[in-house]
Amino acid sequence: VSGYLSAELAATCNALGFYDGQKYHLEPHCKETVRDLIRYLRRDEGGSHEIRRYLGNAKLLTTDLLPMVQCHHKDVQLFDIALRLIVNLTNPALLVYNEVIPTDKFEHNYYLEITSHLQQYKEAFNDHRSWAPFTERLSELLGKNVDDRSEDDQRTVERILILIRNILHVPSSADLDQRPDNDASIHDQVLWGLHQSGMIDLLLYISSSDQESLFFMHLLEIICLMLREQPADVLAKTASQRSAEEKNKDDEELLRIRQLELQNKMKKNKKYFGTRHSNFGGTFVIKNMKSTSDNNDLIYHKPVHDSKYISLDTEKKPVKLPKNRQPLKCESAERKSALSVRLILKQVCVEFLNAAYNPLMLHVRECFHRGRAQENDESYYFSAMRFFMEFNRHYKFQVKYVSETLSVQTFQFIQKYLETWHDMMTTDKKKLPLWSYRSHLALRAYKELLHNLAVMDRNEDESVRESSKVIKSNIFYVLEYREMLLTLVNLYKREKYSKKYLVDLLETLHIFIKLLCDYCKDKKMVIQKTAVRRKKKNKQKKSKSQAQDQASAETIWNLACDEVALTLTSNIECDVVPFDATLELDMDQQKLEAIKKIQFHLKNGDNNQAVAMLRASREVWPENDTFGTNSADTAEELEILKDIFLADLGNDNIAAALTEEHADGSDDEEEDHYPQILERNFEVIDFLKRFSSPKVVRICNTLLSTYDTNSETTNHCIVRMLHRIAWECKLPAMLFQASLFIKFRNILSNYEPKHKELAKLAVYILRKFTEVAATNKTVFVELLFPKHVKDACEIVDGYGSYQDSKNKRIAWEEHEEEELRRLDEEYSRTNVKENKVDWILDNIINKDRSRTGVIKKMKELGLEVPQSKPKGLWEEAEEEELKKLHEEADKDLPDKLLVSWIHE
């Protein structure tokens, strides 16, 4: 900070007043001084934020602002001004830097300095006396009727809520807040202060009141921050006294840590201390490895327990991985707060579920649909959904408490934002950690929805089980819902997603597959399938030139002009509106559309509609006399209609269109590809085979690297996923990976009872490997490469033996050929009028046969194949019919009616 600015800020801070330990004494111009500080912060621009840092170093909030508010909160004007300054000072550092953590060295240090100031501010609010004036003021404002509050009152309520949000948003300090579980951290102390001051009761009142819906978005954010780092299952099972199960669990965890420490200590002693005297424990000669001199062996000056531990790379600097290729780190963690704080939060969750969850989440959802939410509000929506649905599941599961978010629309809402945030990770790479974190929140909400469906299936109430079936039928039926997790698996990259995201993804996939298998166990399921339909278009070559078309149009007009003239002289009462203001077309475009409509009506013979459209368009577009003047007579209108009829407006002639629609002329085939929704029976094994890929094996392999620290649920999901690939899909060779075998070796050598499933899987895969190795010696080389389905099948069955079921031809058996001959003879004997091939396809036993395959087989067997009629040629019966109609028709009859008769 410059000297002049530092002096000015110091003088301004001194002009506020002083605190003697019991009362804060105000200076005469205290209010104006607070306003000056607000103006200073408003102009504090740039990356340094020197004014904000100066006020933080001066501890203005702790020494002046909080004592001022506590002692003079009755002064409403001073309270509101001081509240504005406190809210500004406590704004999150990420918000100060526009949600982008600075990468510049100096700016990043400034960012860390501001964060440390915020942590000091949070520590200042850990006492209920700091919250008491804000609670009293908020209670006074909420006591007023909503209609009686002024705009200033509404702003004050909002600022108090924002202040609570800012304080709870401050991250924990790594140096000052390193506390074990069941101990009160700074965050817990702030929550305790909010509880003692009565602020939490006011927050619950606002969230349950329909009249306070204006503040629901702030309430959602505050509640999510209050429950930050709290495990929902632990909170739901919290009681006033520790249960026996919780005590046993803590004892087992302590014993496990103690045993692990002893094992590591023993390994270290065995590694560095041998049976020889210590004088000979540090120098070795490595045989058959030359030193820098050609005549001597290499001397190794380190204690070595085994020759395999000799390494010459210990002092080498490892190659640094580029920043854009480093695995994404996840800083979020869960901890158990003090028992008193957990009891308070549990009571808050119970009351919130009973009175506020459904209406608040409904209002927030409507804000999203109407675009009234801010950018980061979706994150808090998904966090609240995940936490309270999990809390409800572990506490006393009742569907009515979470019915608003337990629906098919919620699945669609989550999928929408998962796709949106993945696209943002591609386009906005500077904020990649932010989009990845939000995607993780959405995935956790999706996982909790699946957990709730699984609990609903086990519910005693029949209506609850039926509701679960309805939701699952919609999810499993629609292709996009069913394959969302498969898409997420294929899109996973360690540079974009954290390790915890990967764990949640695998656990979500496990739950989804389990629900799907249980749903399809007792019945067949029909699903949507998006296929590409090929539509053959007839592309008729023009046999007439443009001049001939014009001559034909004039001939038709000469035949029909008398009828049009008669219509012009008659009284027409058609109500026509040529201009539609709701369309996104300008006046000129709609004018052209009106002309096309007139031409269309004339060519269809609807003269009344054409004349009515002409006269109505004249009133809308009187300029340039395009539709004639207001005083136009019949002859002038007839001439205008003739010009419109003969004009080339890009519309096809009606007779030509009819001829093209029904013509049999030879044409080229053009395929028009567009998606079509089909339905087919669903097979679970086909769905599971889509997860038999190197990507899924790599994900399981990555998570197995930390099998000893994984939760039992995570290890179970890994085992089940690999078991589905090896056993259910019959592809054990996909797991023949060297890196996977190393982990199997560690599991078997350090066996523990809790890793029983992992050990059983390892034994099964190793036995399969030895069986294959007895017949295929190249399988040892295959350990080094990832394998697809084709590779896994060929390793076991032999190279070149794999046949894709999609490309495999259906061979004709001998009895099928006899059946084809019999059907051909039967068709010739019965004289059926239907096409022979179509009749055979209707009567053949194997309905999988295609028309092309049947025709090809008939040619191979020497059977007569009906020749397709040449397109564009008239049969004799059709020519006779045309001659007869022409003789019967009146000479003045328009040609278009003759064409319509032919088609009738």
From TrEMBL:
Source species of the chain: Lygus hesperus (Western plant bug)
Domain Timeless N-terminal stretches: 23-286
Chaperone as UniProt keyword: no
Subcellular compartments: Nucleus
InterPro entries: Timeless, Timeless_N
Gene Ontology terms: cellular component: replication fork protection complex
GO molecular function, one term: DNA binding
Primary location: nucleus
Signal peptide (UniProt feature, chain positions): none
Record-level GO BP terms: DNA repair; DNA replication checkpoint signaling; entrainment of circadian clock; replication fork arrest
Keyword annotations from UniProtKB, A to Z: Cell cycle, Nucleus
A matching Pfam family: HTH_TIMELESS
Protein name according to UniProt: Timeless N-terminal domain-containing protein
The keyword Cell cycle belongs to this UniProt entry's keyword annotation: yes
